C-alpha cells in the first residue's frame, strides 16, 4: 500500500516532462514597415537635369535607388531652374513657401546644389557666401534641423566639357569653381552638414565623353548615376 502514492505520481511526472519538451508556439514574424521618405531637391540646372530626360536627373535617380533598397519614397519635390543663382533660388523659395507643399513641411531629405551661375555671371563673391548660408539654413529648417538629413553637393567643373573647352582659359574656370566650392564646404561643415564632392567626377568629362550630356555642357544621366552612388553611401 505504501507504493501507491509513487505510482500515482509517475504519470503526472511523465506528462509534465513531455509538455515541457514541446516547442512553444510563436506568433508569425512581423514584417517591418519601411520608413516613408520624402525628398526636397533645391538648386539650378544640375538639379533640374538640363540636357537629360526629367526622370534621369539626380533627384529622380536617387528616389528610384532608394525605392530599390526598400525605402518608401512618398514624394519628390524639385525647386530648380537652369540659370538660377543663389538669389534666384531664394526668391523662388519665398514664393513657394505659400504653397501647401513647402509652407510647413518637414522633409526626410533635403539636397542643395547651387552656385555655378553666381560664378558664371561674375556675381559678388561675398554676397554669394551670405546667400548660400541663408539657403543652407533654409534646407536645415525644411529637414527639421536634422543635420544628417541635409546633403550639399559641390559645383561640377564645366571646364571639363566641350563647351568649357571653347573658352580662352578653361583652367581659370576650374580655379573659380574651386574657390566657390571651398567657400561652400567651409560654410556647410560649420553647420555639421555633409558636403559631397561631385566635382572630381565632372572632371572626367573630357576623358569620358559619355559623362557629358548631348548639350556638351551638363552632366549626362550616367554622370548623375555616379553622383547618386556617392549620396547613397551617406544614406545607407
Structure in words:
With 236 residues, this protein is of the alpha/beta class. The protein is built from 10 helices and 5 strands, in the order H-E-H-H-E-H-E-H-H-E-H-H-E-H-H. A 5-stranded parallel β-sheet has the order 2-1-3-4-5, sandwiched between helices. Helix 4 (86-96) packs parallel to helix 6 (125-142) and helix 6 (125-142) crosses helix 8. The radius of gyration is 28 Å and the shape is globular. The termini are far apart.
**What series of H and E elements makes up the topology?**
HEHHEHEHHEHHEHH
Outline the low-pLDDT stretches.
Answer: 1-20
Specify the biggest β-sheet. Answer: 5 strands, parallel
C-alpha end-to-end distance: 74 Å
Class per helix and strand makeup: alpha/beta
Oligomeric state: single chain
* Total count of strands: 5
If helices are DSSP runs of H or I spanning 4 or more residues, what is the number of helices?
10
Q: Would you tell me the overall average pLDDT?
A: 89
Give, in spatial order, the strands making up the sheet with the most strands: 2-1-3-4-5
Could you give the topology of this structure?
Blueprint: H1 4-21, E1 36-43, H2 45-48, H3 58-68, E2 72-80, H4 86-96, E3 109-113, H5 116-120, H6 125-142, E4 150-153, H7 162-165, H8 170-190, E5 194-196, H9 199-202, H10 221-235
Helix pairs in contact: 3-10, 4-6, 6-8
Amino acid at each position: 500500500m505504501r507504493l501507491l502514492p509513487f505510482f500515482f505520481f509517475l504519470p503526472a511526472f511523465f506528462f509534465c516532462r513531455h509538455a515541457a519538451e514541446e516547442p512553444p508556439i510563436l506568433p508569425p514574424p512581423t514584417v517591418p514597415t519601411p520608413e516613408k521618405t520624402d525628398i526636397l531637391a533645391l538648386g539650378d540646372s544640375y538639379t533640374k537635369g538640363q540636357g537629360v530626360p526629367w526622370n534621369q536627373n539626380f533627384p529622380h535617380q536617387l528616389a528610384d535607388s532608394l525605392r530599390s533598397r526598400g525605402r518608401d519614397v512618398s514624394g519628390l519635390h524639385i525647386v530648380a531652374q537652369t540659370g538660377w543663382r543663389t538669389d534666384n533660388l531664394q526668391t523662388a523659395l519665398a514664393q513657394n513657401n505659400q504653397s501647401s507643399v513647402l509652407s510647413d513641411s518637414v522633409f526626410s531629405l533635403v539636397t542643395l546644389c547651387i552656385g555655378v551661375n553666381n560664378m558664371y555671371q561674375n556675381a559678388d563673391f561675398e554676397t554669394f557666401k551670405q546667400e548660400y548660408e541663408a539657403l543652407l539654413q533654409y534646407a536645415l529648417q525644411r529637414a527639421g534641423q536634422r543635420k544628417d538629413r541635409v546633403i550639399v553637393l559641390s559645383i561640377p567643373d564645366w571646364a571639363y566639357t566641350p563647351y568649357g573647352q571653347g573658352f580662352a582659359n578653361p583652367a581659370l574656370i576650374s580655379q573659380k569653381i574651386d574657390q566657390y566650392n571651398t567657400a561652400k564646404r567651409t560654410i556647410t561643415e560649420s553647420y555639421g552638414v555633409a558636403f559631397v564632392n561631385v566635382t572630381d567626377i565632372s572632371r572626367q568629362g573630357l576623358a569620358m565623353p559619355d559623362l557629358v550630356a548631348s548639350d556638351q555642357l551638363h552632366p549626362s544621366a550616367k554622370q548623375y548615376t555616379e553622383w547618386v552612388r556617392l549620396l547613397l553611401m551617406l544614406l545607407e
